[in-house]
Amino acid sequence: MRLPIDYNVLEDEDGNIIENGYAHINDCITWCRKYGLSLILDLHKTKGGSFDNNPEDNIMFENHELWSRFISLWKQLDFGLSDEHYASCIDKIIQYL
Predict the structure, then answer these.
(1) What pTM was computed for the model?
(2) Per-residue pLDDT at 89
(3) Secondary structure letter of residue 51 according to DSSP
(4) pLDDT (0 to 100) of residue 35
(5) Considering only Cβ atoms within 10 Å of each terminal Cβ, which end of the chain, N or C, has fewer?
(6) How far apart, in Å, are the Cα atoms of 38 and each of 49, 66, 68, 73, 86?
């Protein structure tokens, strides 16, 4: 199952963690495990990065601060999720960034 996520579900504009967002992801992991499904976290939008059709919104790769925030968000996903299998998959993603 693919779970699309925007950063503003997981953190506010200042980068503060929104615990409820991580709780929803953990719920999805629990449901997927119950029904034998795999889960792919699909980070659609980050601060300064979007896959929408507006190129002006995609400045993350040109801005070191926004890029660092993107990496921190993936690391927080690794830390914030309780399921070891999915968290280890996120760790593999982080290694390639």
Answers:
(1) 0.70
(2) 55
(3) -
(4) 92
(5) C
(6) 26, 30, 28, 21, 9
Secondary structure letter of residue 14 according to DSSP: T
Name the residue range of residue 66's domain: 2-96
**In sequence order, which ranges of the chain are alpha helices (DSSP H)?**
7-10, 19-34, 64-80, 84-96
Q: Which tokens hold the place of 44?
A: 């659609």
pLDDT at position 95, please? 52
Residues whose CB is less than 8 angstroms from the CB of residue 18 and which lie 6 or more positions away in sequence, other chains included: 8, 9, 10, 11, 12
Q: How far apart, in whole angstroms, are the C-alpha atoms of residue 61 and residue 24?
A: 28
How many other CB atoms sit within 10 Å of the CB of residue 7?
22
For the chain, state the CA radius of gyration: 14
Report how many domains make up the chain: 1
